[in-house]
Write a structure and sequence with these properties.
With 447 residues, the protein is an all-alpha fold. It has 16 helices and no strands. Helix 8 packs antiparallel against helix 13. The protein is globular and about 65 Å long.
Length: 447
Amino acid sequence: MSNPTTPHKSEGEVDHSDAFAKNEAFVRGNLVRNYIGHFLHGVFGMTGFRLISTPTFVPSYLYSVSGSELWVGVGSSLQQLGAVVSPILGAAFIEHRLRVLRIAAWLGMAMRLPLLGLAFAAWLLTGIPELTAALILLFLFGIFSGPQRVAFQLLLAKVIPLAARGRLQAWRNLVGGIIAAAVSYFAGSWLIANEVLGNGYGTTFFLAFCLTSLGLLAIQLILREPEAYAVRERTQLSQRFRELPSLVMSDSDFAWFILARSLAIGTRIGLPFLFLYATQALELSVAEGASDFGATIAVLSLAFMGAETFANLLWGYLSDRTGFRLAFVLSLILNIIGMSLFLISDSYTALVIGFALVGAAQAGYLMASFNLVLELGSLEDTSMRLALISTAENVMGVVTPLLGAALTVWVGYEGTFLVTIGFLVMSLFVLMLKVKEPRRRTSYSVR
């Protein structure tokens, strides 16, 4: 990352070199504590949020309520729609602040409350009211997920040195993933199969709320945040929006990276429908017996999460050694292979392997794409760059599930997966041809 320009001094900072030295000393002095805080936050947060993000529980829940693939796509799109503008608004709200932990904690809790709402909707409502409540709550979940992600990625950049981020996320994701895989298997094979507390999906969502809240509590109690040594002057929101095009075009690698990352989100065209395709291929339905259905959702969730979990070690150490760009490239290739398996065979073994490959690829994509943006551009624009990629991601996230739902209705699951692969291939070409590894750029210096 290039060195930041002269930092904002309205909060009493002296000069750039003194502020930088104080920041470095604070980071070194609190590194172990902050490492533990981020580790625990990630472990518990990942365990809970993976119950929501894995392409099994929420799509299966929406389908069980509505009986239509269309509403599965609508639910996923509404979740992304909520997060379209909110990252930029969140970044504008925090980018001039010397500390952001308190705001991040409030945003984190606001993001978790819709999970609690989903639990009560599943427990207390049925039919159209239940579906309506679920769609609204997924939309609210999306609204708060955007700025929450920006705030916590900014915290990570402030307190964890670049050379240690891959390993931290690798071990955090490994431990959290192991727990998440076990919890997901338990949720599918017991909570949902046995309709625990009257509705197994509601109980699963409540469990997700509890686990993610523990992670939020851990980071609040443990993490020590330094004052930022370079922040932007506070400006009007309208002016900040007018400055966004120049922020994108000021770094060609960042501009092409946004395009590559947006195309990679094309995986969401087919992702929500992988489980529905698997149940159709295996000729399963909820009506045929909850135990068979529950066992299937448990095994496929375990394959997805288990592979995603253990792949994190590879992605983390690879990224620290070679940079995050290579991990992004390899994750796209792995995703293309995994999605292609669903076109080649519909056997139980092929489905499990396909879920595993897509899960491993997702781990690499998430780690690489969010860390790459921290290395592009100046320090004081980090919040807004994070917001921009989140907004671009969520715009695509709105369109892709609806496109997937329409394709599924018109041309079937196979056509949907073919289009998904097409987006991934385009992303791979843009990334390889237009985006250079930031650590090899002459303007880059490790913070």
